[in-house]
Each structure stands twice: as structure tokens, then as C-alpha cells.
Amino acid sequence: MASFEQGGEREVTYWIARAHWGCGIATRALRLALAELPTRPLHARAAADNAASIRVLTNCGFVVCDTDRGFASARGAEIDEVLLRLDA
Ligand SMILES: CC(C)(COP(=O)(O)OP(=O)(O)OC[C@H]1O[C@@H](n2cnc3c(N)ncnc32)[C@H](O)[C@@H]1OP(=O)(O)O)[C@@H](O)C(=O)NCCC(=O)NCCS
Questions:
Q1: What is the distance of C-alpha 10 from the center of its chain?
Q2: pTM score, two decimals?
Q3: pLDDT value at position 11?
Q4: Residue among 1, 6, 21 to mutate when testing ligand 1 (max atoms within 8 A of CB)
Q5: One digit per residue, pLDDT tens: the chain, 88 residues?
Q6: Which of 3, 35, 51, 56 lies deepest, with the highest CB count within 10 Å?
Q7: What's 10's domain CATH number?
Q8: Could you give the number of structural domains in the chain?
């Protein structure tokens, strides 16, 4: 779980070891992080085909607000992304 500033906006991101996917860890970790992070709006981006990550974010109150193209270093390619924000 990480939070960083980019282009004047604070973003969150996370990575769970594959052996532990689907156990609710990302959702719980993000909820805990949001309680520690007072900055609003808070931003996040996910690969458009990463339904699990988008679900984690929307389950924590983020809403999809835009789309973008961006380089995903994990995939070594430019991909379609979904941009999300949390206002409250
Ligand atoms: C995306 C990732 C963080 C999810 O972590 P996780 O601990 O498995 O997530 P959780 O178990 O908390 O929640 C996953 C949610 O997605 C849902 N989900 C999982 N696979 C899905 C799919 N293929 N389609 C739709 N929903 C899906 C689950 O049902 C769950 O939603 P629910 O709580 O409403 O049932 C994890 O897969 C990961 O680290 N992936 C690699 C790195 C990555 O993609 N990071 C995000 C960068 S934006």
C-alpha cells in the first residue's frame, strides 16, 4: 500500500502477493489507509481490465471519473486506464 503525490494530486496504490488474492486484504488495507490519509480528493488509477482493483476502490467509496492511457511498468506497455477519485 502506498500513497504519493503526482502532478499536485495525492494518489493511492497497492499490490498484494498473488497467493493472497481474493481474501479481502486489499479492501481492508485500503480502508485502513484511508482512515490515516486526510487528503481529499484522493486519486487512484487502475488498468481498465483490472476489475478486482476497480472493485476494491469502488467498495471503499471511490468513483470512476475519467479514463486515460498510461505506461504500466508491470506490463511493459501503454494501456487503457480508469481514473477514480474519493471526495469524502
Ligand atoms: C487488485 C488486487 C490489489 C486485489 O487485491 P485482493 O486482496 O485480492 O482484493 P480483495 O479481496 O480485497 O477484493 C477484490 C474484489 O474484487 C472482486 N473481484 C475479483 N476478481 C474479479 C473479477 N475478475 N471481476 C470482478 N470482480 C472481481 C472480488 O469479488 C472483490 O470484491 P467484493 O469484496 O465486492 O466481493 C490484487 O489482485 C493485486 O495486488 N493485483 C496486482 C497488482 C495490482 O493490480 N494492483 C492495483 C494497481 S491499481
A1: 11
A2: 0.96
A3: 97
A4: 21
A5: 999 999 999 999 999 999 999 999 999 999 999 999 999 999 999 999 999 999 999 999 999 999 999 999 989 999 999 999 999 9
A6: 56
A7: 3.40.630.30
A8: 1
Supply the Cα-derived Rg of the chain in whole angstroms.
13
**Ligand 1 centroid from CA 47, angstroms:** 12
Name the amino acid, one letter, at 55. Answer: R
Cα separation, 11 vs 41, whole angstroms? 9
Residues across the chain: 88
Tell me the CA–centroid distance for residue 8 and ligand 1, in Å: 27
Residue nearest to atom 17 of ligand 1 (CA): 52
Which residues' Cβ are closer than 6 Å to ligand 1? 13-16, 21-27, 46, 50-53, 55-56, 59
C-beta of residue 49 within 8 angstroms of C-beta of residue 60: no
Report the greatest alpha carbon distance in the chain. 35
Q: Please name the residue whose Cα sits nearest to atom 9 of ligand 1.
A: 26
